[in-house]
Amino acid sequence: MRETMTPGRVNARRRGIAIPDCSKPQLMMFQPERVWQYQDQDGVHEMSEHDIIREMYPWWAKQMMKVGLPELISPENCIQDFVVVHWASVTKEE
Fold first, then answer.
1. pTM for the full model?
2. 50 Cβ partners below 8 Å, 6+ apart?
3. pLDDT confidence of 93, banded at 50, 70, 90?
4. Rounded mean pLDDT of 8-16?
5. Neighbours of 34 (CB within 10 A)
6. H-helix or E-strand containing 11?
7. DSSP characters for 27-72?
């Protein structure tokens, strides 16, 4: 199957930036692991940093590629975006 070249991928290649494999996020060990709480129309939810990376990173990294910002793709930035978008707050550090 041929790779689709989005503007983000083309620009990244031209600038010599390594394009991450979005299908297999590199899970990093966060010390200590924090648990984030947020609220939406379905109620109050809690997610650990590991869960945020596992569930959100593949989609988030692809979106970052689409907008041409591959240099900002990292697990830490994914978590930070999740926290900002969901107005999440730390409930506990394990």
1. 0.66
2. 27, 30, 33
3. confident
4. 55
5. 19
6. helix 7-15
7. PPPPSSPEEEEEEETTEEEEEEHHHHHHHHHHHHHHHHHHTT-GGG
Cα–Cα distance between 12 and 32 in angstroms, integer? 33
Alpha carbons 33 and 29: distance in angstroms, whole number: 8
- Contacts by 80-83, CB closer than 8 A, 24 or more apart: 82/36, 82/47, 82/52, 82/56, 83/36
Judged by DSSP in three states, 92 sits in: strand
Give the pLDDT score at 67: 95
Q: Which residues pair with 38 in a beta bridge?
A: 45
β-bridge mates for residue 92, sequence order: 35
The torsion defined by the Cα of 79, 80, 86 and 87, in degrees rounded to 10, comes to: 140
